[in-house]
Amino acid sequence: MKPSWNAASRKIGSVTDNPEEGRPGCPLRSKAVPLSPRGFELIRLQRPLDESYQSADQQQLATRIGNSLEVLGSSVVILGHHYQRDEVIRWAHATGDSFGLSRFAAENSLARFVVFCGVHFMAESADILTGDDQKVILPDLNAGCSMADMADLQDVQACWEDLDQITDIRGVIPITYMNSSAALKAFVGRNGGLVCTSSNARAALSWAFGQVKTISERPKVLFFPDQHLGRNTGVQLGYNPKDMHVWDPKLDTGGLEERQIKDASILLWKGHCSVHQRFSVPQIQDYRSRHPEGKVVVHPECSLEVVEHADEVGSTDFIIRYVASQPAGTKLAIGTEIHLVNRLANNNPHLTIESLDPLVCPCSTMFRIDPMHLCWVLENLQQERVVNQITVDPETKQWARVALERMLATTN
């Protein structure tokens, strides 16, 4: 069954099992998360909070958060990503995807403090787009993104140098998914490329091929860090999967032969989302055996096989809008993060909604943001102490903005 494609992102999910408990199939991350903004490894590490936070129950934390927000007023804005837990989302002034939330913060310039309840690359994007007098805060520094960490600047630069030796680099456009570090956004800005989201990846790839088709006989795109979004978008544009090859940064020349690199239309970085890679064709088949009349909707970070078997494919915003458009009694299996799936089910009791994955594995790194850490940052702000501020250096910020502006110019 050929899925219809759509796009964009904005809204949320609900509480599920704690990934720290080691749910089957749930990825566990080290407490130390690698980051390579300048080609060498740094460590992000959140220190344990003191006993006054760890011993507080949920109601006590809620009372303290509410008191802090009353004092701070319009000086602070809290941003909640779609995949965030409900106990945190209840405090958000805005909910949405990473780019939409960053733009919201930039538009609310009166807010001196931006508390981003998401993951590290999202807070970086907010710092890139907000004003110099706004401070972006990430409640828990261990809230990284496994996909974003699969491509660092050092490896991407090494790949670029290899490509320059093998093919005409002028005919290669780099595209980075929004789920990447500020350093990689700056890299594509410097090298004629752009950023994309799951909603505008098609427009971004079309633009890229249009830029280089007059320069090279075999124009190509280097797409990172999510191979599945790149592959699914390429197929959507009519490219054969055989025209795409996966670049493995752990292997010499990505594990590819020279002829494969020269012939490829799209080089896909070996990266993936640990949540969306869990969805499978057997899960779809099982759901349809139980609900023949049911519909399957998945995110384009899923594998090509899953996308080809789904009824509908699109970004988070598309999924939210699609669910809202369904008549009462519709049965849906949704292939995306469980917090969003649960929230959609709770907000649409006239529909029967379930996760395509019966193990309902959440985004384990997003799950690190909790009321305890939110309370901690807000109470520190009350005392004029800024903790866990995320900053992007001016040069990186400049080139990352170039890449984001190209995206906006291409998709608006």
What features would you describe in this structure?
Helix 2 runs parallel beside helix 15 and helix 7 (182-190) crosses helix 16 (394-411). It is built from 16 helices and 16 strands. It has a five-stranded parallel sheet, sandwiched between helices. A five-stranded parallel sheet has the order 9-8-10-12-11, sandwiched between helices. It has a four-stranded parallel sheet with strand order 5-4-6-7, with helices on both faces. With 412 residues, the chain is an alpha/beta fold. It is globular.
Topology, please?
Blueprint: E1 4-5, E2 33-35, E3 42-44, H1 51-54, H2 58-72, E4 76-81, H3 86-89, E5 94-96, H4 98-107, E6 113-117, H5 120-129, E7 135-137, H6 153-166, E8 172-177, H7 182-190, E9 194-196, H8 201-212, E10 220-224, H9 227-236, E11 244-247, H10 258-263, E12 266-269, H11 281-290, E13 295-298, H12 304-309, E14 312-313, H13 316-324, E15 331-335, H14 338-347, E16 352-355, H15 371-382, H16 394-411
Parallel strand pairs: 1-14, 4-5, 4-6, 6-7, 8-9, 8-10, 10-12, 11-12, 13-14, 13-15, 15-16
Antiparallel strand pairs: 2-3
List keywords for this structure.
five-stranded parallel sheet, 412 residues, 3 domains, alpha/beta, disordered N terminus, Rossmann fold, 15% strand
